[in-house]
Amino acid sequence: MTTRIVAVGAVLTDDEGRVLLIRRRNPPQAGKWTIPGGKVEPGESIEAAVVREMLEETGFRVEVGELLWTVDIPGPDDVVFEVHDFAARIVSGTLSAGDDAADAGWFTAEALAELPVSRGLLKHLRKHGVLG
Question: Which is a Pfam family this sequence falls into (predicted)?
Answer without folding.
Answer: NUDIX
